[in-house]
Amino acid sequence: MVGGSVDLRQARARTASVIQLAQELVRRPSRGGIDDYGPVLDVLEDWLAACGLPYRRLHDDTGELVGLLVEIPGGRPGPWWALDACVDTAPYGDESAWSFPPDSAEVVDGWLLGRGAADSKLAAAVFCHIAADLVPRAENLHGGLAVLLDADEHTGNFGGARAYLADETVTRPAGVMIGYPGMDEVVVGGRGLWRATITVHAPSGHSGSSRAVVGAISRAAHLVRRLDVAELPGTDGTSGFPLPPKLSVTSFHGGQGFSATPDRCDLNVDIRTVPTFAAHDAEALVRKAVAELDAQMPAPRPTRITPIAAWPPFRLAEDEQPAAALLDAAAAAGLRVRAKTAGPSNIGNLLAGECIPATAGFGVPYEGLHGIDERADLAELPQVYAVYQRAVLDLLRAE
């Protein structure tokens, strides 16, 4: 590898070792919020130590272990860049519906089987090997490379990423490449979000009473209708962002049994935001709808809004780093990869809130992501490895 070029044959030579590490990771269940992350992190620590790679443990505010951070400093000045892959996974769902054990880790007909094979233990194995490849040439690197192995991603907490960014001893990265799977696209942007829980109150009463009582469920239903018909600017394609804003009521809970009209109903609201309709606009829209409800259908207590989360939208131009390095590396490998702005949010939104540009979504083809029979296609693994290797070397200006 000279001047940032990558030999595909060298990438193929690394494939067996990458698959072996990924298999060991898949064999250790690490479902977010369900399993102990210790076993899967132990596998990584043993591998990193055997390769002589420097790493540190990352802990959240409560002291829980939430990830590992590998750091390869270069011998020359320059910005740091980061590769990020999660090593926790989605739940299994109905295990009886799987055609193989969710922790199988077997390779069948060129596919790695099991939960986390696609999202994102194979990417974690790739990134660890790329870090190991850089060590012998570290003196010629400008800046440095960090590899974040996040064990608290599928909970939605992004505990590893938060601990990484909160560590004052860490050099903040100039950009991050997130190893989600899929070879057709590089995600360079995503809508933001504003989420809140709304608590609607009302007088309680007997459902058979001769006195008319408008319960909390009825009041909440009126609020849902208001939110459903609320006009969000830019839904006609004039927002200047590839996707329009979107409002969804995602949860509705209240009451019990049949004989009582409840005095409380709770609902969750998820609003996807864009630059022209940001989090404060989303909150203002919901507060306006709530104020109108309380004015027209008074209750003993005002409706309460509890904001839960707010992430900004983000979008990189194709010539911005690290998007440019990844797209250029894919093109140099003869791959047709398009830049995409995603509807769902991802960890890139969290990074955008820290003013750190990020890409996501380039990896091997896959099936069953977050569903039944998750598997990753290994045929394209050497290409994916070579593309990330080239992108990293270009960013570090290796000589």
How would you explain this protein's 3D organization?
- With 399 residues, the protein is α+β, with helices and mostly antiparallel strands.
- The protein folds into 2 domains: 267 residues, Aminopeptidase (3-Layer(aba) Sandwich), CATH 3.40.630.10; 120 residues, Alpha-Beta Plaits, CATH 3.30.70.360.
- The protein has 9 helices and 19 strands.
- β18 and β19 form a beta hairpin.
- α1 runs antiparallel to α2, α1 crosses α9 and α5 crosses α6.
- It is elongated and about 80 Å long.
- The N and C termini lie close together (9 Å).
- The count of helical stretches stands at 9
The counted number of beta strands is 19
Number of domains: 2
Q: Which quaternary structure do these chains form?
A: single chain
Helical residue percent band? 25-40%
Distance N terminus to C terminus? 9 Å
Low-confidence stretches: 1-5
What's the CATH architecture of the largest domain?
3-Layer(aba) Sandwich
CATH topology of the largest domain: Aminopeptidase
- Strand portion: 25-35%
Give the CA-based shape: elongated
Largest beta-sheet characterization: 6 strands, mixed
Widest sheet: strand ordering: 1-2-6-3-7-17
Structural class: alpha+beta
User: SSE order, as H and E?
Assistant: HHEEEEEHEHEEEEHEEEHEEHEHEEEH
Rg, nearest Å: 24 Å
CATH class of the largest domain: Alpha Beta
Output the CATH homologous superfamily of the largest domain: Zn peptidases
* Integer average pLDDT: 93
